[in-house]
């Protein structure tokens, strides 16, 4: 007998919290203790993926541009810039007396090296494609041209020129992303892949890495060679990977953590009642979605993908399972980008029974009239993804769809995605820069962030035109059209747009509220 999916949702709200290593009690009040969702797969800015990596990288490294205390775009190691009349040539003047954490001088040659390493195909940088507007970047990244041909050069030790292939209105915005930070040539060339280990890593941001105990804690100390070291109030930051939200909340309640990034949806009301003054609920520039391998059956068939997508009751998942703390997604671009209007069809307005009828017809056409649709459904080992996956499987069971549930840690999952060794997996994306194109690039054929294999020339052409469009309104319309066209193909299955539900101890000062805000530790203090 099949369980009704509504009953299944209720049954799934019980989570078992794993036992975690204790936090050093002596650290209370002396360091900032931050919880993260998982062990970061890497803290090499060119190889890292996921929010657990990016928040640490933000503390360790900085590029030409960076984020201010309120999320605003500000200069990083650059102190000024000039845009030439061709709108494709940028001249950056660096701050004087810049140093790496090991005391070595940081100058324009380090900027050139960092961008060349990003585009070097031997690096395998995940998000090199975000900077393909740099002259010769696509050809360098594909191995067609040597790295010396990349459009980044040192005019003198304090001046860098970056030439673009096309005008890019949001170029400065991209320069604050993790992919565009500086990386230390002296550490990488000596230590190779192990350069990110404690004792070997060299950084140029507000903090330096001093210890990393896998799956337990990552410790950072203030970088005394940082150009604004005198303004950094917190001497040490400790990151504690805690995949289970219930366990993370308990650590916060036990005064073992000062900041946690999320709370269990089923405990939201109770947490709000007890910790209302410490709770922040703000929109996040992110997307949680189901990534499908469109190169292999059965998910290479757009009819199958659409049937899966429209038969999910996202309203039920977001309202009942996630306690109405997130917004259901049918497109990939979150709300909140000024001037952006999504043209993606919202199936929540169509009754579920009608959608199931359409899905059944699509599956019949695809050859599953008297055949069970089976595929592997992957998700990381946290409780919330498991609950959502089981709820979806319950919804799909009415259509004779039976996914094989597979869990794995986030590091293994991201590695398998990079190898295209999956059929369907839960994935996430948080904006590395504040522009809707970063989300629609998930659907772009030549994008490094497109892990599905999906490619549609019409979509790519629209995005290429948007890259070259100077008028802001026309550019956003082209991006919106590309998103709508790709979602007609159900290139991915968007699930929901996350809302940041953070708890921050009253003794932590300086955390400003802004959409997508993940405050760098250098802007905080402990009282």
UniProtKB/TrEMBL annotation:
<dbReference type="GO" id="GO:0043190">
    <property type="term" value="C:ATP-binding cassette (ABC) transporter complex"/>
</dbReference>
<feature type="domain" description="Solute-binding protein family 5">
    <location>
        <begin position="73"/>
        <end position="449"/>
    </location>
</feature>
<dbReference type="InterPro" id="IPR030678">
    <property type="entry name" value="Peptide/Ni-bd"/>
</dbReference>
<comment type="similarity">
    <text>Belongs to the bacterial solute-binding protein 5 family.</text>
</comment>
<dbReference type="InterPro" id="IPR000914">
    <property type="entry name" value="SBP_5_dom"/>
</dbReference>
<dbReference type="InterPro" id="IPR039424">
    <property type="entry name" value="SBP_5"/>
</dbReference>
<dbReference type="GO" id="GO:0015833">
    <property type="term" value="P:peptide transport"/>
</dbReference>
<dbReference type="Pfam" id="PF00496">
    <property type="entry name" value="SBP_bac_5"/>
</dbReference>
<keyword id="KW-0732">Signal</keyword>
<dbReference type="GO" id="GO:0030288">
    <property type="term" value="C:outer membrane-bounded periplasmic space"/>
</dbReference>
<dbReference type="GO" id="GO:1904680">
    <property type="term" value="F:peptide transmembrane transporter activity"/>
</dbReference>
<feature type="signal peptide">
    <location>
        <begin position="1"/>
        <end position="21"/>
    </location>
</feature>
<keyword id="KW-0813">Transport</keyword>
<protein>
    <submittedName>
        <fullName>Peptide ABC transporter substrate-binding protein</fullName>
    </submittedName>
</protein>
